[in-house]
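Teaching note: in complex prediction, the entire set of molecules is handled at once rather than each chain in isolation. The prompt given to students was simply: 'Predict the structure of this complex.' The entities are:
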Amino acid sequence: MSGNSFGTLYCVTSFGESHGPAYGGVVDGCPPGLALEAADIQKELDRRKPGSSRHVTQRRESDTVEILSGVYEGRTTGTAIGFLVRNEDQRSKDYSAIAEKFRPGHADYTYWRKYGVRDPRGGGRASARETVVRVAAGAIARKWLRERYGVSIRGCLAELGEIAIPFKSWNDVDANPFFAANAALVPELEKFMDQLRESGDSCGARVNVVAQGVPAGWGEPVYGRLDADIAGAMMSINAVKGVEIGAGFASIGQKGSEHGDEMTPQGFLSNHNGGVLGGISTGQEVSVSIALKPTSSIRLPRRTIDTRGAATTIETTGRHDPCVGIRAAPIAEAMLACVLMDHALRHRAQCADVVENPRKIN
Amino acid sequence: MSGNSFGTLYCVTSFGESHGPAYGGVVDGCPPGLALEAADIQKELDRRKPGSSRHVTQRRESDTVEILSGVYEGRTTGTAIGFLVRNEDQRSKDYSAIAEKFRPGHADYTYWRKYGVRDPRGGGRASARETVVRVAAGAIARKWLRERYGVSIRGCLAELGEIAIPFKSWNDVDANPFFAANAALVPELEKFMDQLRESGDSCGARVNVVAQGVPAGWGEPVYGRLDADIAGAMMSINAVKGVEIGAGFASIGQKGSEHGDEMTPQGFLSNHNGGVLGGISTGQEVSVSIALKPTSSIRLPRRTIDTRGAATTIETTGRHDPCVGIRAAPIAEAMLACVLMDHALRHRAQCADVVENPRKIN
Amino acid sequence: MSGNSFGTLYCVTSFGESHGPAYGGVVDGCPPGLALEAADIQKELDRRKPGSSRHVTQRRESDTVEILSGVYEGRTTGTAIGFLVRNEDQRSKDYSAIAEKFRPGHADYTYWRKYGVRDPRGGGRASARETVVRVAAGAIARKWLRERYGVSIRGCLAELGEIAIPFKSWNDVDANPFFAANAALVPELEKFMDQLRESGDSCGARVNVVAQGVPAGWGEPVYGRLDADIAGAMMSINAVKGVEIGAGFASIGQKGSEHGDEMTPQGFLSNHNGGVLGGISTGQEVSVSIALKPTSSIRLPRRTIDTRGAATTIETTGRHDPCVGIRAAPIAEAMLACVLMDHALRHRAQCADVVENPRKIN
Amino acid sequence: MSGNSFGTLYCVTSFGESHGPAYGGVVDGCPPGLALEAADIQKELDRRKPGSSRHVTQRRESDTVEILSGVYEGRTTGTAIGFLVRNEDQRSKDYSAIAEKFRPGHADYTYWRKYGVRDPRGGGRASARETVVRVAAGAIARKWLRERYGVSIRGCLAELGEIAIPFKSWNDVDANPFFAANAALVPELEKFMDQLRESGDSCGARVNVVAQGVPAGWGEPVYGRLDADIAGAMMSINAVKGVEIGAGFASIGQKGSEHGDEMTPQGFLSNHNGGVLGGISTGQEVSVSIALKPTSSIRLPRRTIDTRGAATTIETTGRHDPCVGIRAAPIAEAMLACVLMDHALRHRAQCADVVENPRKIN
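The expected output is the structure of the full assembly:
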């Protein structure tokens, strides 16, 4: 399987470039009988859509999805679900500058070294706009997970640059343009972002994602672990540089007597493991945290080279997110949904006949 | 592909349990003509071997590897390389206690929930002893990477519990039982470990791994990214709870003007990206950092439940590493080697005809 | 990987239904730098297009392909190539009859049993119209194989019902609507087909496909054999019931002294093996032959059951090929091209460093 | 996934060479709880064992299997099942002759061209002795299929050279060394084989395999069809040159009114489709037929070249099957079992929630 597909049984294939005619994808392996219409996908696409506040890119895209196959009379048929999102706002701007220079922090140089050629328009295939495909595929997965297993998946911005955003309530998340789970901090975030935009610079972010209602037993030791697949999926999101499950890097400083989650007949007493032990879900909340680097496209001048190898400088103008992490929550949710659905299917393939023990604690 | 194999072209399949007759594996896809003998693998196995100091498990295993196929007259033939490591020290101890109780922090409960049955002897398939297979497969990969591309892969312990171990020299690593790249700290580490063992508790650790000499161009956007595959591989190692590439979680607090690595005709001016941009190697050092949780097997009593669901307590006696991170460097190196080799093969499959640009900066 | 993708490195993913909005696909893994435009694909689609003679279905489809990604300034970029073929002639006919009855020989019953639901319009996903995706993907593969390795792939109709069509010349193939490599037989074929149509019945066919110029060395023992992958690919074509490589079933009656192809410094003296030994190409012509069953949609009344399990009869009217084998040559060529390209890439991944022996005989 | 593994969820990985220390394999994805011991596998290995009559190779191998993992207290645990079969009868004969010459019909030349090196001892990896791994993996699959779904899989010799063996009874199969389902023909077969051996030549064969009790619904359109995967699996068996499902090549001469199997409330009226429609099982008997070429190792002198490219001749002495088809029935059964089990698991992964319609006809 090549690099533009992922998943073993819930398999997502993606295509499209930032300034090409369209993005699209194929979701293969979805069970038949799921009620599905374009609006189910659209709802999630709208959550990640550009232009929704002054703090994100002002590119104008309706991001309207068209379902091309796999659905008949409002239900999935079990065959491949093809979908398409046309690009609308490909400005006819002059790309010769960035066609001849490599933007620091971008994939310009690596694509050029790998492929010999590259599509420089808006980042081409490396554009974060590719995440529309992930969000679309994730929308189907999360709908199935919710209806079939009662799983709910939510994400929020946990750090914006150096500002920590203590979790207060999921209800706050949809009421502000930052996906912040703490409404009280929104004015501070807005002020920070306004200053950042003015400075021409960008900043990093942390996004937390959790899945509630995941049954115990999903995940395959020893390489196909649930947490391993989650880590790979998260790190495949543009700009992500780190992934944690549960206590994550804080585990380093913990003692075993603190980290190892004790159990009682009423359930686990803590969740340092993040919902996964030995690569298999415990039945607790699956909790993931990711680090997103600051946007590489900034207005400040930077040293670089051109395609002839000569030293030069570059300033990236245009409509860029000053913090890609702000719109990342729906994307991280989507990736978690896809991995969980893949493992739900894989688990029941192998273990459908395992008799549930009545003494299970969750 | 099921959970006990990984890799697309350099494909590793693993089997074995802690107290079964043997561990073994199959490496498929290795190019023909590589000089290979058991000693090449043995050398790496010996680096992770238990019992090498008082700070690690005292289980006595020679970990002798036997190559069963794929090598003829000292060279790989291009066919599947099968290998075997017999278990020797499976003490005939009474497992009834842990057969009926779930050890906190272990996979006991999740295996039981997933499969309905489990092999309780020494953790069965969930034992970290499975990493012998990874190290063996990695030994072949690193030999090929070194001989074919000049890639060298090294790892070291960067934090032991709350003790940070500032990097001083790779030369120090093999001269102490901690894989510490700083000989001056060894007395402090020894004292810490002696106290830890005495307390009956365990601690977490951070391990850093780097690959030098990786050419630009390895990795496949958008899901098959080099960093995504590295993250998945690292998170699949027992006890790993977090993975970072390059600046990792420190990226959150960075500005774009700091994080985005500038380029000159002499090369990159920094390496915050960790050797990967857009999922493709830049030609810089590939740098990875992982967090390992504290060992779950500790002598202190812990609350848990038994298989009938009743509350109980458990103390884990036996021969356990008080810090699994101490022996983890060779394992993380092996996983990085396997991923890099897989991508080396994948890259030349697709891009063998790309003409190298003479103006490349590395 | 689920059922709508195939190939390891040259990976084709397909979606679409007969009466849905569109068919489309994603080709992943194509090397960068290949000159490619829609016309290259269109040319092959036109060869399999319906309505091109009175002997095939009269469904009117322009089968116009749109390339959506992966190509920039007329060259492949190495990223996923998405393409789309809109359906145009979905007659608004009443499908209630076949929605409630199972057509003998069709996939109606099996889809219903597998998925619980099915799209009855024109066969839905089971329609042979899905082969547009295969032909499109094959068009890219054959172009690359020809330009990179000088491989040429051709197919012809070898039997039409009980009429054998002895091979005379490849030049004849494109000059008649049957893909017959023997112009002299065309009048007989036309007469046969006219009578068949009149009778309301259908017939089977044999199609032969060969690839010339395949270098020695492609194919992976022991399960990923070139011939095994060819057999799987051919059997995945609608209506195919048998596959032969080289002497095929005639091998049964051969002696070893006849079948085993002798070698001389000038090359092999025969090609009973069909260009593959031990799963690896020999450098000879790769020759494949397939059997296609008679079209299941016939005007004659047939016994069947309805979805409530009651006995009934069905006559299938509409625009159907009386012999699906007639248009199958371009499809079989496409599948062979895809498999060969996949193995070309796989081979150079593993064996790029093997030094060609100057004493090779081809 | 590389060439030495097959299967998506029931995944078999194989290693070993004819004169290396051992063959072995890993079966991944087997459901937990299956009663399994070495004797279950041994029984099937004994059916394909060499030396069981004068009509097959006289190589002496006990083919004793050792299970190394994945089974605990007589039940599969759901983890990878590793197994080993040591080679015993690797005669220390001089291989220099065949090391320097290519045996016609063998993989000697293609391995040499692909890999640059090859293990010439007894065919190395290309030896049909590799089928011990297939038979072992198939033994586990058929046991699970039988116990879980009531599927039974049987094979027989249908043609020996030009002698057709009309099917009479499955009971006859195990009572003669030819796997002939017709005891009356055994004397004729014995006479034929005695003459063949005396002549120093070899012959081809046809083997039929059927699976009874396969439920409707297994198989994945459009590339992952059940029949496509069966065709690939069968063609991957050494010496196989052709595969048919159901009516196979006879479909060419059939009319649609004959081939398309009519349905009644009591079931299908015929089985020309061979138990698969649209790539999905119908609930009828799955019937497969394969052609095996004559053994390439014959005592008669044959023209060939040596590794320096010079013309020479070769006679292959040693202990070879004069007809590899004779021992092929257990191998073909095993491959069919593995494919069916893989699809059983894949089917329930996606369609576990499909409500069985009470009006189904089987």
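Point out the following to students. The two ends of chain B are 36 Å apart (CA to CA). The interface with chain C takes residues 8-9, 29-33, 78-79, 148, 221, 345-346, 348-354 of chain B (CB under 8 Å).
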